[in-house]
Amino acid sequence: MLTVYDQEPRTWREEEIEALSALAANASVALSNAELYQRVAVEREQSVAILANVADGIVAVDRDGHVVVWNAAAQQITGVPTTEALGRTTAQVLQRNLESDDGVGANRLVSIMRGGEEVWLSLSEAVMRDPTGAVAGRIFAFRDISAERGVEQMKSEFVSAVSHQLRAPLTSIYGFAQTLLRQDIEFGDHERRTFLSYIASESERLTRIVDKLLNVARLDTGDLVVSLEPIDVGSVLADAVATIEAAAANGHRFVVEVDGGDLRAHADLDKLRQVLDHLVDNAVKFSPDGGVVRVEARGRADAVEITVADEGVGIPPSQHERIFSKLYRGGADDGSSAGTGLGLFIVHGLVQAMGGRIWVDSEEGRGARFTFELAAARGE
Amino acid sequence: MPTTVLVIDDEAPIRLLCRVNLEAEGMDVLEAADGPSGLEKARSETPDVILLDVMMPGLDGWRVAEELLDDERTESIPIVFLTARAELRDRARGLDLGGLDYVTKPFNPVELATQLRRLLERVALGEREDMRREKLSDLRQMLERE
What value of ipTM does the predicted structure carry? Predict the structure, then answer.
């Protein structure tokens, strides 16, 4: 409402009233516009703030394909700064078109290069149309899923490696069962017993592999239950070696050296046996030409140290860290050597679960010394 | 003359499985527990066909196959790969190398003799290359479908 006063009360002329009405109308429009601009400005501020803080990369292009929005996340994911991207096409900025050929819609898997590295994006696209229905622009939203893809790939490699391991004992079990079922051969007692023993022992082997996998799964999810108590390491060592000696083939010689004195450590007996069994198994496996396998235990200040050493093929220093990871397998890289590649991963996990640590001292061709230490339980 | 089969596999039970079932069908079986002794036996005995395990410690099956095919004494002996690696890519690799067939573990040893006999018949008819090409194209088709 516009109120006008004159110094003296008088009657307003027709044209004055018209002019004042027009002025009032304009003022009213100007006011609403000002309010509108302010609202738009506030909303714009809000949009900018949202775009800046959203985790997904948001890119908008106009009808000619030139970038008009390239938010902070887009900059971070693609490595291309907003200032460089604005005004150019996505093809110019990313060396590939983000626009899909067959129309918009659900998330697509798209790869881009970021500084020499391949990055995988989960991308969705929406089209903006103007009132006539023509394309006025497009909006893309994307996330970096390279990490998830990496994990997926590792999982599938792991599953594949495991399936190979399971097939080996299965072959014997299935094979001997089928053989025994043959109607055209009369097998003697001795033969039958041999076949059945293989079925039994290969079933046990299969069970051990499955158990190993369970261990790995438990280590992964942190479900491993470890109960620590003071354990005399010396006697556990002697036991472990005796078992292996009984089964060993290749003329390995076993030497057990246990320090005098109190060698009690905080350990879980079952897990400790698993660790020792595996390390001694490996020592035999990786010294195919025989030699001496030494198992030693010695007391240190607050710990008990146990070493398993062989005179076999050794491990190059470059691999010393990798060997404790999930898929490492000694030998040719195409996985042609036996073993699940999980053993040292499990050993490492078990030692850590008991509060200890493990390391290796080795060079190619010069054997390997695996040492792990556990907290001492002296005088308890 | 009975067919002679050389089985090269590091696992004793597998060798036994092959021996029992192949001998039951009138074949002669030679065994080797690793690559080097397998190569030696192949060179000295020239068997009619070689069953070759891929995953052996030391000299693996792929390398043994390469050496067999490189040596004029053994290059014409058909090779059948025994593999736990059931993936198509691995099977194709064996064929690409020059092998003629593959058996994936676990396998039914009772059917082994028939498979080998069929293979040798086609080899005798000069169909070696046809066989490999057929199998490779089957595998390629399956790979594409994946």
Answer: 0.91
